[in-house]
Amino acid sequence: QPRSPCCCLAWTLLIGTMNSLVFLLNLLLMFVIFTVVLLPTIVVVYFGFQCHSQVLHSSARYCKSILDDNSSSALIILGFVIMSPLLVVAMAIYCSLARRLQLLVCFQPYSLALYKGGRCCQPGQGALCCARGCSRQLKAWV
């Protein structure tokens, strides 16, 4: 049965806020995972650019004694070469974690704001949130 206009507006704001929080949680989780996994690439490329004479040419001791232009170029190339497999690893970790935590099931449809009804997931079904029609067929992946 349809909700009243005030109730519909309140539920729309609640569902919009909840969906925004779930989106921000997904974004934060993705940022943390990609930062941790891509840290070796970030470090290698940073030192390569920092010690190259035509880019930043730092006066740090390790740049003068250990890294010359050829080794700095090698670090830059190595960093960009190892970036591709690490991106795949980071995406696999994020997808696995999102699937295990069932984060994509937590997004709520706005039809819950328009009509009364819908059922919440049972605690035994493993979902972290309240989802309408929480059956195996409606999940993002099995």
Automatic annotation (TrEMBL):
It is found in: Membrane. Its main location: membrane. GO terms for cellular component: plasma membrane. The chain crosses the membrane at residues 21-49, 74-94. Keywords: Membrane, Transmembrane, Transmembrane helix. It is a multi-pass membrane protein. One of its GO terms (molecular function) is PDZ domain binding. It comes from the Eukaryota. Belongs to the TMEM88 family. This is TMM88 protein. The lineage of its organism: Eukaryota, Metazoa, Chordata, Craniata, Vertebrata.
